[in-house]
Amino acid sequence: MKWADLRLRIRALVFRNRMDRELRGEVDFHLEMMVRRNVARGMSVDEARRQAELRFGSSGAVVERCRDERRVNLAYGIGADIRYAFRQFRRAPAFVAVCVLSLGCGIGANTAIFSIVNAVLLRPVAFPEPDRLVAVFSVNPAPGGGLWSVAPADFRDWREQSRTLEDLAAYSGSGLFVRFNDRMEQLRAARVTSSFFKTLGVQPVLGRGFEPADDLSQTTTVVLSHRVWLGRFGGDPSIVGRQIPMDSGSAMVAGVMPPQFTFPSYAEVWTSMGCCRENTMRATRYWQTVGRLRAGQSIEAAQADMQSVAKRLEELYPKDDRGWSIQVMPFDKAMVRDVREALWILMGAVAFVIVIACANVAGLILARSVSRRREVMTRLALGAHRWRIVRQLFVEGLLISLSGTVAGLLIAKWGIGAFFELLPNSALTSLNGFREGVNLDSTVLLFTVAISMLTAIVLTLTPVWDSFKAGLVESFRTAGPRTHTRREHRVYRILVMAQFACAIVLLAGAGLLVKSFVRMLNVEYGYDPRGLTILGLPQPARNREAFVAQVLERIHAVPGVESAAVMSFDGFGQLNFPFNIDEKPFPNGDIVVRYSSVTPEYFTVLKSRLIAGRRFDAPDSGNAAGVAIVNEKLARLYLSDRDPIGRTIVLSYNNQRLPRVIVGVTSDIRQDDPGQPIKPEILVPWAQLPWLGATLVIRAGGERPFTQKLVREAIWSVDKSLPPGRARTVEEMLSSQVATPRLYMILVGVFSAMAMALAAVGIYGLFASNVTRRRNEMAIRVTMGARRAHILWLVIGEGIRLSAAGIVLGLLSAVALARLMESLLYEVSPTDPLTLAGGTVLLLTVALVACYIPARRATRTDPMVALRHE
């Protein structure tokens, strides 16, 4: 296209009226010149004008032909369609509002969930060559053992013996106490091997990453996150190479990472593993790994390679590695393996919402199209092309769907923020790492536009399909304001059933999640969580036992404190150690159980029950004989053949065999979320194993509860340089454990409520229009003697029958799809009959109310008025 032609078309669009005036003036000028020439030849004025028009043609036709040469008629037509659509919308504002809100809810919910799915599941991780990154796990041979982390010694062998991995790195969570302004503060740290940054393919923006020498060094090397570098060190570039004071010695700052690097998501700093005794541990598995495949290698090849490594290690170290295998998984899938299934379920749930919204709007447009059928037929009879009618209706449907899309984007923007507000820091940590990447980017907008266009097509075809199939005579015959075709009646029934079928699927899912969540809230924890607070307690490098004893003494003196104890891990966490009984190994090797250390007051503070034997007491000091208390689950599984008191369990740690005599059996204490089974556990005196860490657990008592400020001051009174960790109540901790099912319950509950509301509005609108169309029929029935109760049941009965049919179809679908939700439920069958029955009753009640209003209106029809209008 030449520039002159393009400029003419742009000018014709922008200055249409002026160009039309100029064109008409030019045509009139030429016509007038021809008239003058004819007059000059001796013709009369009237004859001269007639001859000129015969030769020149009609001025109006000439103007139209010249307009056609501009080739902008399509744009003119679309503009006219838009203006006509807005005139139609002004006549029915309630119809437009319901359509836009329905589509806005459906599109908004889909866009919000898809933006999360896109960021978490579809978009590749933000590392170079992400398809080569893998996560490598140990596979527990016990039934249902699942995927585990790797032992430090096994990691070293994996890295040395693998032929398909270019490199392999390990990392684990930790804490780093750094001195700021004469006060120690704890930073969340990730302890990593020297190959960590190289494996991920990222480099610091300042300084360097870790080097192999750092893995052998006795000193600590750290790399700062960009946020800590700016917030704690003022963005000072000279920090690289300097020593920063810590609780024990100092650490050298090697570099600063770029701002977009936030892996693992909890890490504020990264520290080198260094040379420590844990690197020889083979039985305790707590290092997580990330590897990079060699160029040209596949996941399958790496899996076969690592399985051969696992067999070699099993032969070399049968005590620790017997039965253990290795699983290689794409890194992006491994990061979200805990939430992958749940997110796809949520995506399926919102798909039902958009189906209901489209069915709702399609039903309303179908009802409205009856009154517009004569208009469409008249335009066809006058010569309008069918596709011209389709374009007009498509523009109307597109404007409605685009308005719904705008509303949906606003709802989605709010919904994404609300989703992450409901997402706690302690739950779905893999999802928290993607928070910054969840936004309305081009992929999400393309998805939303695709939904909008598909909706517009559906809304366009609904009212014109029958008109195009039938001839003009047949269409005019059925184009009365109160008649509808058989196909329209069939579509109308299908739309009602589809809405209720989708709604019962969502309602059943929400009911199952609510019931599961209630079961989780009522689970037995084995202790009394009310009034308990946990607080991280840093320890000095020396005299730890004396330090903890002084702290407990000061804590007991704080007003409002009933009792206090120390346990090894924050939040009831434990390490996992293999063990056997009386030096007799189990058939498949040592069993891995939880292992933690506690002070004697621990059982009193928690108010747990002692099943047999005794609790720890003061004589169980660091120099005394090794003793242990086991939980009821361990005693039932492995010590049921005879009295466990007095028997010896042998723990494997750091290639050592540590015998301990069982002195007591305590009740099971649930420490994982309620969806996980209680695990066997061994407790030892904290004085005999202080290096595992220390966490205060305090029970409030008295009329006035203690304050965290007084507790911190009590700790600082023993050592001002040690910063206490963040205090949390156990009830808050337990609440965070059920945060994931709570989030799923809220989301699916919102979607089901949205679906139920849309279905109610849809069935109300359809039945209201149906009553309007059948008003003459109702009038005739009343005239012939029908009672108003009969008329009421005629309308309500049809609605209940259609709703019940849809609910039955939905229940069959819900039962078929229920197995997909099994992993999200706790002690609830996915086909729980009470839940399905409750959802059915609720939806039937909604249908009854939605049908009653138009049915009541039908009973009040005045036969004379109705028949007069006909």
Structural write-up:
Helix content is 54%, strand content 16%. By secondary structure, the protein is α+β, with helices and mostly antiparallel strands. Strands 1, 2, 3, 4, 5, 6, 7, 8, 9, 10 and 11 form an 11-stranded mixed β-sheet that branches. It has a 6-stranded mixed beta barrel with strand order 14-15-20-17-19-18. A hairpin with a 2-residue loop joins strand 18 (648-653) and strand 19. The protein is elongated.
Task: Describe this structure in a few short sentences.
The strands form three sheets. Strands 1, 2, 3, 4, 5, 6, 7, 8, 9, 10 and 11 form an eleven-stranded mixed sheet that branches. It is elongated, with a radius of gyration of 38 Å. The protein is 54% helix and 16% strand.
Query: Which descriptor suits the 3D outline?
Result: elongated
* Strand composition percent: 15-25%
Low-confidence stretches: 426-430
Summarize the amount of helix as a percent range.
40-55%
Secondary structure: number of strands: 22
What's the gyration radius in Å? Answer: 38 Å
Biggest sheet, open or closed, and with what strands and sense?
A: 11 strands, mixed
Number of helices, counting only DSSP H or I runs of 4 residues or more: 29
Cα-to-Cα separation, first versus last residue: 57 Å
- How would you describe the oligomerization state of the chains in this entry? single chain
